């Protein structure tokens, strides 16, 4: 068992008997293709699935704790959408991230997706603890992105051109948002931020009217350096 998945090492198949379709299945199959598989126990006593000697999945108390899929370029919908325990993930080549990515996750406090250009809807929807995020190439970000996050203070989206509705809707701690190429946002953008109207600026005018195009700089209060 891998969390709520069943892995058959002999015939190299993985199934999800009790849940809806989960892109973890396809991603794992792509990652292990033509590789030698084995299960080991690491120094922490956790079971690990290895492919050609490299750990790609680590379990803790039977739940998926870490994932390293560094050969997968596309992540489909519902990737580990019901896993709550994941703490670390590496998807260094993934360009497209589907809907409901880590939908129920509660354990992650940082994530980096260095090649991702497309981010689907409901990204880490129920995670309220994420403090660091790196999306240097993200261009199109779907609705309900980190909608329940309450911990993120800074976010840089240098390539983003479009962001859907309910972006960081519940976050009230954000101090800095940099998105110089943004030209389209959905409704309820930074919906409940207590200083949204005073902090969102576009040089000589506020952007709350959603006139396009515009640049966004959410500055730290009192910071006039930018």
Please report the distance between the alpha carbons of the first and last residues: 52 Å
What general outline do the C-alpha atoms trace?
elongated
Number of strands: 19
* Rg, nearest Å: 19 Å
Strand-helix topology:
Layout: E1 6-8, E2 13-15, H1 23-32, E3 37-41, E4 47-51, E5 54-60, E6 63-68, E7 74-75, E8 88-90, E9 96-97, E10 110-112, E11 118-119, E12 132-134, E13 140-141, E14 154-156, E15 162-163, E16 176-179, E17 184-185, H2 196-199, E18 200-201, E19 216-218
Parallel strand pairs: 6-8, 7-9, 9-11, 10-12, 11-13, 13-15, 14-16, 15-17
Antiparallel strand pairs: 1-2, 3-4, 4-5, 5-6, 16-19, 18-19
Descriptive notes:
The structure is a single chain. The protein is mostly beta strands and 226 residues long. It is 6% helix and 27% strand. It contains 2 helices and 19 strands. The strands form 5 sheets. It has a 6-stranded parallel sheet. A 5-stranded mixed sheet has the order 3-4-5-6-8, with no helix packed on it. A 4-stranded mixed sheet has the order 14-16-19-18. Strand 3 (37-41) and strand 4 (47-51) form a beta hairpin. The longest helix has 10 residues, at 23-32. The model is unreliable at 202-216 and 218-226 (pLDDT under 50).
Short overview:
With 226 residues, the protein is mainly beta. Helices cover 6% and strands 27% of the residues.
